[in-house]
Structure formats: structure tokens, C-alpha cells
Amino acid sequence: MDMTTAEATSETAQERKAPGRPRNAQADEAILDAVLDLLAEGSSAAAVSIEAVAARAGVGKATIYRRWANKDALIMDAIRGMKGPLPEPVGVSVRDDLIMLIKANRSGRAKRYSKVTACLLPEFLRDDNLFDMWQAVMEPRRDVTRRVLRRGVETGELRADLDIELAVLMMTAPSMMHGMLRWAPKVPEEGFAESLVDAFLRGAAAS
């Protein structure tokens, strides 16, 4: 529930008087980390409140409301930060770039927040608004993989009739199942990205 104008004015005045209170990037980081911490501890997106985030981050609610229009926008910004910057393919070979992309999505940062993703996935399926925002976060990352695959078709490394969308799915789903949901636990982490890409290329590489 949105706070009243009086509450916002009061908190804003208190923040101006409080020395040493984090501002700008520091406040943003504390707020986004608080959201992720609450989700990792098992809170649903619906259960995460602005009050709880403010208390965990050590800021007033006014600080949050000045930066984000609503709670959904705050959660999506936290998820965007959780994913980190978009990876940049080097462009030497399709194989090397695909391996790099898979490893980027299985980094220590990704493992740290796997509980957050697992917590939110059911909510994305139930809430169309959250799902659309999640898609907006993930689509640029998928597009990086698409560009690598299309380049591979153009250079002759990959089959000319390659289904790009199906190939993106083939590159992402096994990694998610293995890394986050821990399917196929006997498949070692070491060399996983290389093994997955090589299996894909056995069917996708140009003859």
C-alpha cells in the first residue's frame, strides 16, 4: 500500500537531517540487496513489502518511493542487477562464444541467487504482469545468444537451416535444469559448458 503524503514528507525530512545516510548508488545497492535477501530467505514477491525492504536496507520508505514507482518495478530492478551486465561475445568462434555465454550464466553470482530465481518462477507463471517484466529482463540476454548463432550461420560454422529460437532454447534449458534445479547431479560442473556446446554442435554445425 502506498504511504500517505504526510508520511513521505516526514521521512524525507528525517533523511535530510540524518548524517551519513547512504545516498545515490550506495542507497540503491542497499535497497536492491535487501530485496534479493528477502526473496532468498523464502519470501514471495507478494510478501515482500516496501516496509520490510526499507528496514533491511536501513533507509526510509521515502528513499525507495523516490527511486521506484512501485514494488514490481523495484523487484525487477533487483533481478536485473542479480543477472549482472550483459556478456560480450569475443567473436572468434561460435563454440568459444557459446561456452562463454553458458559460463556467464553459471557464474558464482548466478549460483548465489539461484534460490531467488527458484522462488520467483512460480510467481511469474501466475502473474502476467511479473511475467512480462521478467521477459523484458531476460530478452536482451537471449538476444546475445541469437546474435552469436546468426553470425555462425553467416560464417558457415552452423547449418544454414538452423532454427535460431529452438537453438536458443537448447542452449539455455539444460544449463538451468542442471545448475539451478540440480537435475543430472552425476554430470560434473567441470567441463559442463564445453560438453553442452559440443553436443549441440554435433547437430548444428555445418557439414
Automatic annotation (TrEMBL):
<feature type="compositionally biased region" description="Low complexity">
    <location>
        <begin position="1"/>
        <end position="12"/>
    </location>
</feature>
<protein>
    <submittedName>
        <fullName>DNA-binding transcriptional regulator, AcrR family</fullName>
    </submittedName>
</protein>
<dbReference type="InterPro" id="IPR011075">
    <property type="entry name" value="TetR_C"/>
</dbReference>
<dbReference type="InterPro" id="IPR036271">
    <property type="entry name" value="Tet_transcr_reg_TetR-rel_C_sf"/>
</dbReference>
<feature type="DNA-binding region" description="H-T-H motif">
    <location>
        <begin position="49"/>
        <end position="68"/>
    </location>
</feature>
<feature type="domain" description="HTH tetR-type">
    <location>
        <begin position="25"/>
        <end position="86"/>
    </location>
</feature>
<dbReference type="GO" id="GO:0003700">
    <property type="term" value="F:DNA-binding transcription factor activity"/>
</dbReference>
<dbReference type="GO" id="GO:0000976">
    <property type="term" value="F:transcription cis-regulatory region binding"/>
</dbReference>
<dbReference type="Pfam" id="PF00440">
    <property type="entry name" value="TetR_N"/>
</dbReference>
<keyword id="KW-0805">Transcription regulation</keyword>
<feature type="region of interest" description="Disordered">
    <location>
        <begin position="1"/>
        <end position="24"/>
    </location>
</feature>
<dbReference type="Pfam" id="PF16859">
    <property type="entry name" value="TetR_C_11"/>
</dbReference>
<dbReference type="InterPro" id="IPR001647">
    <property type="entry name" value="HTH_TetR"/>
</dbReference>
<keyword id="KW-0238">DNA-binding</keyword>
<dbReference type="InterPro" id="IPR050109">
    <property type="entry name" value="HTH-type_TetR-like_transc_reg"/>
</dbReference>
<dbReference type="InterPro" id="IPR009057">
    <property type="entry name" value="Homeodomain-like_sf"/>
</dbReference>
<keyword id="KW-0804">Transcription</keyword>
